[in-house]
Amino acid sequence: MSVAPPPSGEGMPAHPDTWTVRVREAAVQALPPEKLLPDGQPTYVASWIYVFGVASIASLIVIIASGSILALKGPAWWHYTGVGHFFNSIHMWSVELFFFVMVVHLWGKFWMAAWRGGRARVWVTGAVTFLVAVPTALTGYVSQQNFDAQWISTQAKDGLNSVGVGAFFNVTNFGQMYSYHVLLLPVAVVVLVSAHVLLVRRHGVVPPFEIDSKKAALVSTARLDGSGSSTPGNSPASQPSTGAQS
Amino acid sequence: MIGLLAVVLTVLFSSPDDKPSTVAQWSRELPANFVATAAKELNSTSDTAEYGPPYNHNSGGVQHFLFLHPQRWLGVSHPIDTAENYVIDPLKTVPGDPALRSAVAEYQAAPEKTKKEWGEAYAQPLEEYETAVEEKKTPPKTVALNATTGAVTVQASGAGPVPRMMAGLLALAKSGGLDGSLLTSNQFFQTDYTKPLLFMADGGLLGERAEAQHLLGEQWGMMNETGSYPGQAWLWLYALWYQVEPIKSSSNADIQVMIIMGLLSLAFICIPFLPGIRSLPRKIPIYKLIWKEHYRSQQSV
Question: Are residues B108 and B192 in the same domain?
Answer without folding.
Answer: yes
